[in-house]
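Example for tutorial group B:
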């Protein structure tokens, strides 16, 4: 029988590999892994005890999600990243995209997010956009206009203003700073 485990903190392909390896090292038969979840198979209908898994995941910076609110928050964060990175998703507002995906009204989702995370969903969206912008500025030669477009900003001017408010420097200053930093092996 297949069992699903929701996991908080999985944000990249390396996280997927780390979680998969951890489960396999503990003798689980992993059948699928994606951002935020892992499925495994057992010979009977009951899930395995996850106590040791929880401990080892926490050592790696992850957390097994048990309750519905935690799963909703994790899914909201995943939806924010999808909305930022997928032009097709951005045809809807974030509010409409999240509401449609979770079948809940946006006000309830936003309130839950604010109450449990200590910041609004909109602030989280801004912080994720800026974090992704930092990665793109450091790793690519894309123009500011291309990065702004890729992250769903209405203009490169809006992108630059928001980036500067969040980081204290313009995207160009940030890129220059990253380029001047010594490279480590």
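The residue assignment follows.
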């Amino acid at each position: 029988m297949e069992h699903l485990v929701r996991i908080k903190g999985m944000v990249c392909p390396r996280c997927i590999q780390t979680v998969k390896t951890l489960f396999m090292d503990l003798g689980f038969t992993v059948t699928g892994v994606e951002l935020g979840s892992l499925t495994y198979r057992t010979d009977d209908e009951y899930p395995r005890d996850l106590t040791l898994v929880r401990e080892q995941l926490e050592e790696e910076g992850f957390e097994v999600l048990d309750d519905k609110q935690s799963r909703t928050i994790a899914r909201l964060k995943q939806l924010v990243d999808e909305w930022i990175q997928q032009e097709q998703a951005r045809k809807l507002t974030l509010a409409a995209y999240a509401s449609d995906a979770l079948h809940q009204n946006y006000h309830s989702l936003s309130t839950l997010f604010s109450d449990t995370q200590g910041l609004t969903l909109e602030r989280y969206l801004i912080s994720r956009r800026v974090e992704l912008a930092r990665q793109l500025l450091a790793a690519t030669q894309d123009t500011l206009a291309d990065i702004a477009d890729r992250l769903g900003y209405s203009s490169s001017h809006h992108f630059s203003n928001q980036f500067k408010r969040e980081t204290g420097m313009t995207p160009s200053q940030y890129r220059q700073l990253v380029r001047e930093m010594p490279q480590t092996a």
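The CA atoms of residues 36 and 101 lie 15 Å apart. Compare this with the pattern of hydrophobic and polar residues in the output above.
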